[in-house]
Specification:
The chain is mainly alpha-helical. It has two domains: about 230 residues, no CATH class; about 55 residues. It contains 13 helices and four strands. The longest helix has 21 residues. It is globular, with a radius of gyration of 20 Å.
Length: about 300
């Protein structure tokens, strides 16, 4: 009973704080020469944007967790709205409905997540986030002898071009082909989440690509970042990954192979209940993960 109460008491906002490491934003220090608009207020706004967005989707509207990936809305202050290329709608945080032309949909297009890529909007970091956190995929770490310092962009060479060179490399491509293309749809977003059709060198940027879902034989093509978000939101693999993420958070321990069968049952029960956060938490509390398995090792 005590375990059930502890699991049920964990709040949705605590989940999103931990999942996306939103505290990270308070320590970011982008290069001021490249991003003079960055300041502590903008960082705080990005963190609060994601928390309000998450609360709106999973709590107030009670929508499926997968809608976090492609919901066409966000919350922004005037400063953050201008940063995103939106017309400010009023003081403080306001809700904004996002048009397809903005390129934005869901958490992947929010500054809190996009800044994972650092100043250079690394396709390695962004692609690994999609692979690990949304597709529940794994990839080996690079060998110690490999120089992981990325080359700089220049006229005629974008971040995508650099990624394509790594993918074409016989030694690097085996691993990089699994995750860097997952970030191709995010190329138009710079290191702090601004949206551009060209980079600082005047190179045209693209947001088309292909996504290969684990377990599938062929990749699926998309023409824009919005289409990428829609593909991810519709993916059963992504829905299952969100179930695993919330279950790990609720249980307060890493998941292990022995949990897989129970998690599959939890996922099916939750999806029958609409795939919402409350339905998932209820399925977790009533499952053998909580009812028959200790969530902490006895000392």
């Amino acid at each position: 009973m005590e375990t059930c109460s502890r699991v049920a008491a964990r709040s949705p906002l605590q989940f999103v704080d931990e999942w996306l490491d939103l505290e990270r934003l308070t320590h970011l220090q982008p290069d001021p020469r490249r991003f003079p608009q960055w300041n502590e207020k903008l960082a705080a706004d990005m963190r609060e944007e994601t928390r309000r967005f998450f609360e709106e989707i999973v709590w107030r509207e009670g929508r499926p967790l997968a809608d976090l990936i492609n919901a066409p809305l966000t919350f922004a202050t005037p400063q953050l709205a201008v940063h995103y290329g939106l017309e400010p709608a009023g003081d403080g945080f306001q809700r904004y409905e996002l048009a397809a032309a903005s390129g934005r949909r869901g958490i992947l297009s929010q500054g809190s997540v996009l800044t994972i890529g650092g100043d250079d909007a690394s396709m390695v970091s962004r692609g690994l986030f999609v692979l690990h956190d949304l597709l529940r995929g794994t990839v080996n770490a690079p060998p110690p002898c490999v120089n992981t310092t990325p080359p700089a962009t220049k006229a005629g060479l974008t971040q995508r071009g650099i990624a394509e060179q790594r993918i074409a490399n016989q030694q690097c491509g085996v691993c990089h082909a699994r995750f860097e293309p997952l970030a191709f749809g995010l190329e138009k977003f710079d290191g702090i989440g601004g949206f551009h059709s060209q980079d600082e060198h005047g190179n045209p940027l693209r947001d088309d690509g292909e996504v290969l879902f684990p377990g599938e034989a062929e990749p699926v093509a998309y023409e824009s970042s919005v289409e990428l978000m829609d593909l991810l939101a519709a993916s059963e693999r992504v829905k299952e990954s969100l179930t695993w993420k919330v279950a790990q958070f609720a249980l307060g321990r890493p998941l292990v192979a022995e949990d897989a069968a129970k998690l599959k049952e939890v996922h099916l029960v939750s999806q029958e209940g609409g795939g919402t956060y409350p339905s998932l938490m209820a399925a977790i509390v009533l499952s053998d993960l909580v009812q028959k398995t200790a969530t902490e090792k006895a000392e």
